[in-house]
Amino acid sequence: MLDPTLRRGLYGLAAEIRAVEEGHNARVMPDGTVLVKAESNPGSYRVVIRRVADGVLWFGCSCRSGGYRTSLPVPCKHAALAARRLEREGLARWDDGSWRLREWAQVRGARLLLARTVEAA
Ligand SMILES: [Zn+2]
Known about the structure:
The protein has 121 residues and is of the alpha+beta class. It is built from 4 helices and 6 strands, in the order αββββααββα.
């Protein structure tokens, strides 16, 4: 068995790679959620920052995996893509198998920061 943190990290990375391969793209919404859609089909999913625990970002998603993998910080590929977006915006960093906030850790603050990137984009 892998260490749970490592397993989580690997899951997150694998999910991210799949998402990129499947041509998803992530769009930050004004409320700080991230809308992820697949170019190949009409569906879209909403990713939210669910909580921040010890600096680690936990994501939720409106897709099926997001509904049942709630014990994982990154429950699905959509969440992984949203996390990468936060990383690109300089808000989060990949560290020790999870995405962490760069500075202080507040869910509301993180959402607001993310929302602010909409105007900057
Ligand atoms: Zn999802």
